[in-house]
Amino acid sequence: MDWLQISIRTSHEAMDLIASIFDDLGANGVAMEDPAIVNDYINSKLWDYTDIPVQKNTEVVVVNAWLPKDHLLDSRLKALNGRIEKLSQTVNTAPCETMFSDIKEEDWANSWKKYFHPSKIGKRIVVKPSWEEYTKKENEIVVELDPGCAFGTGTHPTTTMCIQFMEEYLKPQTRLFDVGTGSGILAICAAKLGVKNIQAADYDNVAVKVAKANIEENNVENVIKCFQSDLLKNFTGKADFISANIIADIVLRLFADLSKKLTKNGIFLASGIIKERLDDIKAAAAKHNMQIVDMKEKGGWVALIIKYREDS
């Protein structure tokens, strides 16, 4: 079967939402081209050599997706146009330029793999796809993760900041809930960091399937229970650490349930939040007697460590 590659130039604010639309339409893979991330890697000196120039325009990202050229293609493209138009009414999607490329079946296997390479995204954690070779250095933790129709490959700023916070705050005895687990990357990283009691869930059954496969690939299925759940609904007991790398509106919904699912001295790690929504999160935290105690910012996104006030 041949494929149609669809590339949409858009804003940081809209890229995850557009990726989600592609996922809903049955895209066989979604990949982001974010020049801000490219610059971060060039400046980090993690690459031994690169001939990639520093990117000057970091405001525009490209969301790539691949749809099969079958009898459903026309209806999927029509649905895509309609949903993008609707999204543009509430979110800045500019420049919202769409490009199309035909991909032959024989070229498909490698056309999307070029977007994924080993990436060191924390002090110790390296994420690599299965087809790439990587020589582990001393004290590094390698997570093997193949991207599928689920989000979380480690390179997006919201994910890297979460993992960096996990390296700082997690302890082996931590009980962890990962809400909206996507590819399972945060739960897997937590397990690799030594956490022994993890529940991970996603609303999307496709994401749950992908996450379970990645969990098994990393041999951590004995410490991670993965299942379908609408936010915290199907999680059992209470956690010392709840991670949610989703979007601001969903993070806001979670606050109402934290009292039932987070221990008094527990940590709520909230990410997937554009900087412009930070005040909304602060207000919601204050309303539930919580406060932001630590924050990271990268590429227009923020990740937050939120805890109950000491007088609560």
From TrEMBL:
| One Gene Ontology biological process | methylation
Keyword Chaperone among record annotations: no
Instruction: Give the source's domain of life in one word.
Output: Bacteria
Enzyme Commission number(s) of this protein: 2.1.1.-
Which GO-annotated molecular functions does the record name? protein-lysine N-methyltransferase activity
Reaction equations catalysed:
L-lysyl-[protein] + 3 S-adenosyl-L-methionine = N(6),N(6),N(6)-trimethyl-L-lysyl-[protein] + 3 S-adenosyl-L-homocysteine + 3 H(+)
Protein name from the UniProt record: Ribosomal protein L11 methyltransferase
Its ancestry begins with: Bacteria, Bacillati, Bacillota, Negativicutes, Selenomonadales
